[in-house]
Design brief:
CATH architecture of the largest domain: 2-Layer Sandwich
Distance between the termini: 50 Å
Low-confidence stretches: none
Order of helices and strands: EHEHEEHHHHHHHEEEEEEEHHH
CATH topology of the largest domain: Uridine Diphospho-n-acetylenolpyruvylglucosamine Reductase, domain 3
Shape: globular
Mean pLDDT: 96
Strand content: 15-25%
Number of domains: 3
Number of helices: 12
Strand order of the largest sheet: 4-7-5-6
Amino acid sequence: MILPGFELHRPRTVKEALGFAKAHLNDFDYVSGGTDLLQNYKNRLNARGHLISLSGLEDKALREVSATRLGALATLMEIEENGILKKALPAIPAAATVIASPLIRQSATLAGNLLVETRCFWFNQSEFWRDAKGGCMKEGRESCLVVPQESTCYATYSGDMAGVLIPLGASVHLEGLEGGRDVPLKDFFQHDGIRKNVTQKGEIITHVSLPESASKMKAGYRKLRIRDTFDYPSMGVGAALRMEKGKLAEIHLCVNAVATTPLGFDALAAPYVGKPFGEAEIEALSDEVMAACQPYKNVPLSPTYRRAMIGVFLKRLLMELAVSK
């Protein structure tokens, strides 16, 4: 499909990018790799009149990667192949390897994956298909077709990197028209498939910060999808834990791609801390998390199957993390 018409801006600094955003505040999108945004533009999904390209920003810190800082413009392939991360935080490059295909990971960025558009089979269709159905709230119509009502869009969050970064305690740094701020990633997303997150108009993610304690955790991410080398997640589970003398010292859990936001379950896991954490405890906790989830009916795999797989995937992941040396 042919892209719609738009004006492309190529800033060299974050300050210049924010200036373009201020000038076109209600009619712009930021773009870097464009692997998600441009396919939506081709389908005429909320295309804007101005695109502000971040790919030419000259600040090297936006692309640098270390054990405590991930540049927002680092590509998923750079994260996947980074030797420092493979040694200190292997769960992060491992999670990057299950996103899309190698070709896409060469262009797609970390920030782009965190900000990926929420998805729904009523929305992610051709313009002709959507017109025939009548459209949904996410494209400016009156009602959500997943949960029929007129206040909240129930499109599903479909990024992957949040699924491993949230359990590791990551925060995002935002630069905007009013200055900079840090937001814990677990608090970054909002229950609304249109609003999606807490970013204000014009704000740019510059980097993701990780606490030094993250490298002391064993972490992982497991993803359910139909086609392994292409699809967005239909469900994902992430976990980070620390064992001491056979007992669970710390644990953080995340279930991804079943709701409008990634879901955290640290409260459910808290009673297991300070106690032995073997197969029986892992199975019980996995069943509790599964029972607490109700996936939306807006992707090809059924809610019932996705819900069952939460328990299966989480049990496998926790068993691997709890017993690994």
